[in-house]
Design a protein that fits this description.
This is Ribosomal RNA small subunit methyltransferase A. One of its GO terms (cellular component) is cytosol. Its EC number is 2.1.1.182. With about 260 residues, this protein is α/β, with parallel strands linked by helices. The protein has ten helices and nine strands. Strand 3, helix 3 and strand 4 form a beta-alpha-beta unit. Helix 5 runs parallel beside helix 7 and helix 8 packs across helix 10. The model has no long low-confidence stretch (mean pLDDT about 90).
Length: about 260
């Protein structure tokens, strides 16, 4: 049977076996985790090579009925571990239980950022995220402070994951070819168990800062600062120059000032 790539699902099927092998080889099983969930496997181009990794306990998830039928036909070894589910809507504990698992895939470009944010919600269960994104998204996630690409997703992911940009993939190795290049990144869980500040306020500070990134933080964070006497050296800066640690420090100071 054939599987048609569907534009509304953001599908671009990877056709170059060498790239598939290269992605699978980058998978490191961080913290010894051998369980993996592949998102958007399509026709199983990457699945084939993930299954060749020693001791891999692989499950796959796709919303496309054609892909699910194809996978059931061509990958009988995955019987019982092929899920027709929407990753963004499913309760992952119902599928994967409470044990750690990595997330891997040639991720659908139209939801790739949302996939990362959901993994962030499950960060204590997901020690590694490995896969392909639109190059611009991959670079943004991995970017360091001081760049125009550094933004909300950079700070929030880097708070709990170490990010490595692995390699770039050209358009012609997909069917249909996307209009942009792709980038493969690896996110590995760092040692930060919890933030030393109010996490919800931290997220608000990061989002408010970058939502008005041309302004200084003094202007963009006005609604979050309840103490009119509060001042901090970082408030005179723009958000893109602050590191994760500096955002944490600023959040802690804002929180303490709000209690006075």
């Amino acid at each position: 049977m054939t599987v048609r790539a569907k534009k509304h699902l953001g599908q671009h099927f990877l056709t170059d076996k060498n790239i598939c092998r290269k992605i699978a080889d980058q998978f490191q099983y961080h913290q010894g985790c051998k369980r993996a969930l592949e998102i958007g496997p399509g026709t199983g181009a990457l699945t084939e090579y993930l299954l060749q990794q020693p001791e891999t306990d692989l499950s796959v998830m796709d919303v496309d009925s054609e892909s699910i039928d194809y996978l059931n036909e061509h990958f009988p070894q995955l019987s019982g571990r092929i899920y027709k589910k929407d990753f963004l809507r499913v309760d992952l504990e119902e599928i994967m239980g409470k044990e750690p698992f990595a997330v891997v895939g040639n991720f659908p470009y139209n939801i790739s950022s949302q996939i990362l944010f959901k993994c962030l919600d499950y960060r204590n269960q997901v020690p590694e995220i490995m896969g392909m994104f639109q190059k611009e998204v991959a670079e943004r996630v991995a970017e360091k402070p001081g760049s125009k690409q550094y933004g909300i997703i950079s700070v929030l992911l880097q708070t709990f994951y170490d990010i490595e940009y692995c390699f770039t993939v050209d358009e012609h190795v997909f069917n249909p070819p996307p209009k942009v290049k792709s980038g493969v990144i690896r996110c590995t869980r760092n040692e930060r168990k919890a933030l030393p500040c109010d996490e919800q306020l931290f997220i608000q500070v990061v989002k408010a800062g970058f939502n008005q990134r041309r302004k200084t933080l003094r202007n963009s964070l006005k609604k979050l600062i309840n103490n009119p006497d509060f001042d901090h050296e970082y408030l005179s800066l723009r958000p893109e120059v602050l590191s994760v640690e500096q955002f944490i420090e600023l959040t802690s100071c804002i929180y303490e000032a709000g209690k006075q």
